[in-house]
Fold each of these.
Amino acid sequence: MTHQAGQALDRLTTTLEAHGPVVLPALLLCDFGHLAHEVERLESAGAVALHLDVMDGQFVPQLTYGQVVIEAVRKATRVPIETHLMVEDPERVIELYAKLGSDIVTIHIEALSDPRRALETLSSLGCRAHLAISPGTPVERLEPYLDACDGVLVMSVEPGYGGQRFNPVALEKLAWLAAARSRRNASFRLGVDGGISTETIGLVAAAGAELIVAGSAVIRSADYGRALTELEALARAAA
Ligand code: DX5
Ligand code: ZN
């Protein structure tokens, strides 16, 4: 991780601590024909970090993008990038994505054979190491690794597509994780991804979510700035 990336992450942490939850726009549904322009629009709309969905057509049905697009986004912005790896056998590629300049690399518990080792590899490369969990996976499966991760991303839709309906099972998981965190006096961040809208964002913020991913709610709106401001205001009012 470069020094600049470290500073960008520090700004994200400061924002979280001063103002409460932040919204990370997911680029999945954006206009990839004008990628740099989309990134610039999101940055000038006030996005403090971006969420990039890498899907391999194996772990999830859809095939999205990989290294080349992450590199292009890295060149186009200085805000932190969360790379959400929805791939089989993520251990093969975590080092690559860390070295491409992802500030946060998020890996699925369901896809890992040795979660602790993968998290330690990411940390040793200077990345924040986050664990993602799909709606059908019991939250207790994360317990043995909570001391080794910097954050958890609770999926509130089945990973694979943007624009799906929010699954409230995420609220129970967020509440469980928030309780586990205070019990252990730990400091991992709580994230949520999928189906976030003006109707659902208050619920996840009240349940403890701090890094809130929003795809369609931002990208399908005519005015990214207005959408982000509204979502963040609702999250902060509910947190
Ligand atoms: C789904 C992805 C999400 C997606 C969210 O597999 O992980 O990040 O882009 O899109 P919305 O907010 O539309 O559910
Ligand atoms: Zn995602």
Amino acid sequence: MMLRIPAVLTKQQVAQCRQVMDAAEWVDGNVTAGHQSALAKKNMQLPEGSVAARQVGELVLDALERSPLFISGALPLKVFPPLFNRYAGGESFGNHVDNAIRPLAGSDFRIRTDLSCTLFLAEPEEYDGGELVVEDTYGEHRVKLPAGDMVLYPSTSLHRVTEVTRGARVASFFWLQSMVRDDGQRSLLFQLDTSIQQLAAEKTHGDPAVVQLTAIYHNLLRRWADS
Ligand code: NI
């Protein structure tokens, strides 16, 4: 399931992030690439663990913790500290799949990548190209969102970033391990949760059908979740 999460960051928070990022030093993006993707990847990144990456990363993680849509759609167990990239002057990232296991350098922390996240930090008008193209069994999905919006997609998907031919595409990207490993199960839980929220808004508090459906949601989660 691909999921768009609008306005994870306000425009003011985006401006705050960009101020820190624009003043920081950037390095070749191949520092986080696996062997295969290193051949396809042309972009710049904030160094992992740099002061700027940590500062902006914390702002992003705080915002995500307050997003009910993110929590419901991702059911996050472990989130990798956000990374930041910039594509300009014809840079792109060819078709690849993200590494299955992502260790955090210099620590014992590592995650299985269930979901890949891209948080856009430049407005679509600021650059040409730079679409995230995600392939699944329904075909290709082209994603280019307003600054502050985020997209989640299964890390199993082949994906690429098209060439940026004008301006600069600035984004945060990271991965998470979900409590529910299987994308199909996680999608069902999300749909069920969304329906329960809608129904609960229409019914009086304590409506027996809503209570029953909520019990089913939690009992499915108990069955499928690792914690
Ligand atoms: Ni990728």
